[in-house]
Amino acid sequence: MARKGLMPRSTAFCLYVLTAFLLIFPIPSVATTERSDDEKTSPPLATNGQPFPWRKMRLPETVLPLYYDLFIHPNLTTLDFTGTVHIQLEVLEDTSVIILHSKDLRISKAALLESSRILPLQVLEYPAFQQVALQADGVTLTRGSRCAVYLEFAANLSESFHGLYKSTYRTSEGEVRVMASTQFEATSARAAFPCFDEPAFKANFSIRICREARHISLSNMPKVKTVELSNGLLEDYFDVSVKMSTYLVAFIVSDFVSVSKMSQHGVKISVYTVPEKIDQAEFALNAAVKLLDFYDDYFDIPYPLPKQDLAAIPDFQSGAMENWGLTTYRESALLFDPKKSSASDKLGITMVIAHELAHQWFGNLVTMQWWNDLWLNEGFAKFMEFVSVNITNPELQVEDYFLGKCFEAMEVDALSSSHPVSTPVENPAQIQEMFDDVSYDKGACILNMLRDYLTPEAFKIGIVRYLRRYSYQNTVNTHLWDSLTGICQSDNLDEGRLGGGFCSQGKSHSAASKWYTEDELDVRAMMDTWTLQEGFPLISVEVKGREVRLSQERYLKSEDPTQTSGFLWQVPLTYITSRSSTVHRFLLKTKKDVLYLPEEVEWIKFNVDMSGYYIVHYEAGGWDPLIGLLQHNHTALSSNDRTSLINNIFQLVSIGKVPLDKALDLSLYLSRETEIMPVTQGLSELVPLYKLMEKRDMEELENQMKGYIVHLFRGLIDGQSWTDDGTVSQRMLRSYLLLFACVRGHPPCVRAATELFRQWKESDGNMSLPNDVSLAVFTVGARTPEGWDFLFEKYRHSLYISVKSRIKSALSISPLSHKLKWMMEQSLQGEVMKTQDLPYVVVTVSKNPKGYKHAWDFLRDNWGTLVKKFDLGSHSISHMVIGVTNQYSTREMLEEVRGFFGSLTEQTGSGLRCLQQALESIEENIRWMDKNLPLLQGWLDRWGPKPGA
């Protein structure tokens, strides 16, 4: 339960005394300067030249914050803010100095309240570590005592997307309105107020916000009162928060309006947005109510706050943020209009809300000790998206898409520059880099693998035990594994929850359960192999009669053998055979092992439904019966099994285990495929082949490859209707196929899209287009300067985020290269096209054969501005670096990219992991082209469509 009331009476008195004291004894702030010392050979120096009394990036554990009383006044006219913070502290070790975080704040006054004394504090600043030291002459704080510090500070509203930053939007009348919002994860609370900005320093927060009458303010907790100040401003008081980390603190000052509902469990849920878009909030509100109720029941732990606000922020770098009680979203991740939004919009918005609400338990209630275990937050939230939406919204068919997340993670994890799920990090850029596909998608995939292995019921009992044991605390990996071990050994946290006969069944369980056996599964030993080492295993299978010989090695795309030795996983293998559709299980703990079948089989398929995070190679002709099965009776395997075979065989081509022509032979079956995941996986394996050629002068072979892909899917493409009919997966597949066909110039598609665009344009954009096919229509329309300009005008004036998103995509696919350059420049300026969309625009332009050179030039020429705007190490920077470069395949471009990356300094990103990943990908592309182009040419001559076909 959250505490009621405003603040303890003693605290209010202390604040009064401190404020009076500081009016008399102000403490001058010290101007910041660049770091000039070599900390390894001499003590770090503060900005005033004095020795700084701490030399580590992590804060000392000498004091513990218990309670913050924070006052903040964001001035939306002067675009700056002022504030005060009073922090109650418990002293854990004798110390004469208090070290905490502060970034770009002007601290004007500071005092210590200790043993009824009020003492002025000297403030030493060390910008290199974003730290300040507070100390008073001759004062030592003794272990076990309590004290408080009081600080007054000021700063400008940030022009980036972090800290307390400025956001703007334009009304339909053209008026630009300003608001202030926060984004503190991972290390930006320190840019809004001085604090102990590490996740383990949890505390309670009492927040007061000063604003003009025309605005409202929001924070984590409900507002309890508003006081009118003498200058006509208003001060909102918010209830005391639950104990939480600084990165989860949030506040907004805006002119937003809201819609609200009560959940079944009595939580008030509200969606806030700019006034003109409030009619697009209903879908998110209903989804949030349903999902929060689901989590409340699933975890059997009540959501601890009285309200949950969801706010659509006009400028927002990532998709959303899980601030406790005030989740914030990019507008496109929250706003939905039934008449304007597509099936993929509905799925995407529901998934993002499910992700952020899962965080209210995984991340907020139980928080990782340090950012090295970020996956405990993000991997779980990504995993729970699928669990929750599958149950609450079965019509969205989310189970179709989970394995795609595993393939995305494997793309990164197959490089030698990958990192373990749990990996040491120290500085803010390294922490930012943890927000990647490994933490999110690999984290989710290994949890799904463990759930499949333990059984969903046992897994659920374990994670609920984990949440109950560590509520309001911080955890490391081993806490999770311990909670998932010995599921049926009752502890007092679980009493009353393990009934129903689950644990009493003992050894009568099916072979699907491994944890109950005599040699009980050591969850920690198994999962350490998946979290403490990077990469994933390639399982090689050789069948000889009834004997199945198994071996494992690290799957790695680079040619460095030193990167593969010494890796060993405990792999929970699953398999079916031509003689048995029952899922059989085998735990592979060693480099090599053998399992025995009850009878000989025609084929064997491992990694059933891609529930495991590994790929499989069928040696000694083992691929041939599987390829034959797909060609003659592909529905004998599930959609996910077909998808994983497509992915695995093309991955094996990359490392020389399978020749390209065998993978292309498998792809022939796709002419009969109708399910979304095998079709889109087939496209995602085949399309990059001609994308590599677009960057070289290989027009004849490139067109041959494009012709083969269109021919392969022609029946499915031509059978699509230009409507919004069908299931969510059918509608999303239609969007994907028609866009592909129109971009490739498939005549029936282009004719239909051209006619629809003509009608839409003649209606001045008022005609209602089917939402799922409108991107294909817009893309064909954007091919001409007149069509492009018309679409851009509609983009500028539309209030519908989903429509704007589709138009923006179409504009960036256009062959008009001068328009592509203009789009990137406009997105950087941020007035007409939002800067938050720049990474997407740059990467989409880079995939465009008329734009890829412009995208590289833009990235290189604006690098300094980009890292300042989006933050060093952020996913936005990584997305641009990888996205712009990962289709280069020439030694000339490799040297050009390497030369630019080599010119960077540590301050501008020379140490970023994404730079190494980009270079590795280009090197892999070069090797692939050198080895496989002759094979590809020969195969297409044999199997590709003949000219005129």
TrEMBL record:
Aminopeptidase that plays a central role in peptide trimming, a step required for the generation of most HLA class I-binding peptides. Peptide trimming is essential to customize longer precursor peptides to fit them to the correct length required for presentation on MHC class I molecules. Preferentially hydrolyzes the basic residues Arg and Lys. Its cofactor is Zn(2+). It comes from Anguilla anguilla. This is Aminopeptidase. Belongs to the peptidase M1 family. Binds 1 zinc ion per subunit. The record marks Y440 as: Transition state stabilizer. It is a single-pass type II membrane protein.
